[in-house]
Amino acid sequence: MADPTLFAQIKDPSNRADPYPLYARLRGHPVTRQDDGSYLVSSHAAIRALLFDPRISSADLPPAHSPPTGNPLKDWILRPIKDEIVSRHRPLIFRDPPDHDSLRNIVMTQFTPERVHGMKARTESLVGELLDKCRGRDEICVVDDLAYPLPVTIICEMLGVPREDEPRFQGWATQLATALEPDARHDEETQAENRRTFDTISDYMKGLIKEKRRKPQDDMLSGLAAKTKAGAMGDFDLIATSILLLVAGHETTVNLITNGMLTLLRHPDEMERLKHDPERAPRLIEELLRFEPPVHFRTRKALADIPISGQVIPKDAAVVLLFAAANRDADRFPDPDRFDPDRPDNQHFGFGGSLHYCLGAPLARIEGDVALVTLARRLVNPRLIDDPPPYRDGASLRGPKSLRLRIDGIA
């Protein structure tokens, strides 16, 4: 039997820099029950099967439960109504069909390939501007100087958020991303802060949506607001969706760029090849998504007893799909612990899969491509100051908190 404490070890910050030996131990038992009652799924074949299994639900968040206020009117009437609204109108990554499908289809009317690819030139310009600000320095932080400001600016511009409000969104996105961490869902202090943040950003979005309806522009939020006004999506779902687009369009891309630069610095031959042959970037991005994915796992809930890989996941059990473990499954990827951008048939889970395949995958690929090619070509003799670097708290959204580099200049 696999160690029933392995998930606790994976979530332990002391293992954040290198959880891959733990994933390797798990793959010997593709489906294992842990001490907390959850079932870990670690093989590529088992995860792929469950992603397409209708008995696995993404609606696994606990019901909303606001704390008592001491005001009888609010506690007996308003608070239950608010909790019911929040529970029924979760972001679409926490919804199942048919709600998930209808919401996703509406979003895709605005998040079009034309709009996404139209942001490439803006991404190139912004990356150049961010690096130009670092001229004259002998040290930079990839996270603070590029990986955070780039995606938040891009997604805010696509949504139609005024430039002066963009700095507020970075803190909001970072806080709300904790909803993907299983332990944070049951931590009262984190939950209280998430509620305050969600209320704050919801109030902001309500005002912005009202302004978009009054004075629509050529942006995603104006398009979505017009559709909700026509009855295609309710206002509660629109607010939840706009918040999701902000968080998902930001946090994961930060990790993609930062993990990518760290990997290139550890493989200087690949850095050099990318510098002289930027056409390698798409293949390199796909291998990064397999080798060091931005999201290491997602949680689900079993709607029925599910036999799989010699085990039975019981109804109502929490299920953890360990994408990062499956991405290094030797049964699917030859020599899986080797970073190889020329790897053929690279069907990774870097963006999840099935119905919940990442909406923003094309945009993240563009941002990662432009950022890494530009860093490789413009940084003169970059060297890691800390290896391993300090990591962020989250085990699911895993990436360095900072990535400090010593440089000889910026070309």
What do these coordinates show?
This protein has 18 helices and ten strands. The chain is an alpha+beta fold and 411 residues long. The chain has a single domain, classed as Cytochrome p450 (Orthogonal Bundle). The strands form three sheets. A five-stranded mixed sheet has the order 1-2-8-5-3, with helices on one face. A three-stranded antiparallel sheet has the order 4-10-9. It has a two-stranded antiparallel sheet with strand order 6-7. Helix 14 packs parallel to helix 18.
Radius of gyration: 21 Å
Strand proportion, as a percent range, falls in 5-15%
N-to-C span: 54 Å
* CATH homolog superfamily: Cytochrome P450
Percent helix among the residues?
40-55%
- Summarize the helix and strand pattern as letters: HHEEHEHHHHEHHHHHHHHHEEEEHHEE
- Looking at the overall shape, the CATH architecture is Orthogonal Bundle
Question: CATH topology, anyone?
Answer: Cytochrome p450
CATH class: Mainly Alpha
Q: How many domains in all? A: 1
- Give a short account of the largest sheet: 5 strands, mixed
State the strand order across the main sheet. Answer: 1-2-8-5-3
What's this entry about, in short?
The protein is an alpha+beta fold. The chain is built from 18 helices and 10 strands.
Characteristic terms for this protein:
about 400 residues; alpha+beta; Cytochrome p450; five-stranded mixed sheet; 18 helices; 10 strands; globular
